[in-house]
Fold:
Amino acid sequence: LQNLVALSGAAAEHLSEYKGDLYLYPLEKLSESAAKSLSRHKGELSLNGIKELSNPAAEALSTHEGGLSFNSLTTLSDEAAMSLANHVGNLCINDGSCGQQALKGVSDTAAESLSKHQGYLNLDGLTELGNAPSISNHQGAISLLGLIEISDSAAESLSKHQGDLWLNVGLWGTGPQKKTKLSEAAVKSLS
Structure:
């Protein structure tokens, strides 16, 4: 499936019956009918080549049982975020592995919706988060390794997060990601 850039509804229907994880990279386009079919697949569903996710496709995929991954999204509408928040299981929206073109931030409305997601939430590709009061309400593990800077007010909000919180503050790794900048007040809030 290495050369796959589009997927018909019929092909997606057949793939949905596959027993095991599906990694459909570099699939770039996903129709609503293909999304509905793939939503019936049980297991990890990696759609890491998708750059734009329509609201109907996001709504269909929200019923998928298993991990769901989108690492090339360049935009995420508030409606799509609301739908994806209903997904139960691991949700990865831009883990930072797909470079400069990927989504760097989400609206406050999208962050509020994503905070309601049940399961591990990976937003490592995001470099900005605003003041983060809503995302800190997420119940469960959240990874924000791509954040470049966290404001004092965002750190105060994140300090109230219930669950594991991953930030790149230079404690491990030597990869290309920049370390998150934290003021002394932010460090105090998070400790």
In short: Strands lie at 22-23, 45-46, 68-70, 91-93, 121-122, 142-143, 149-150, 165-166, 181-182.
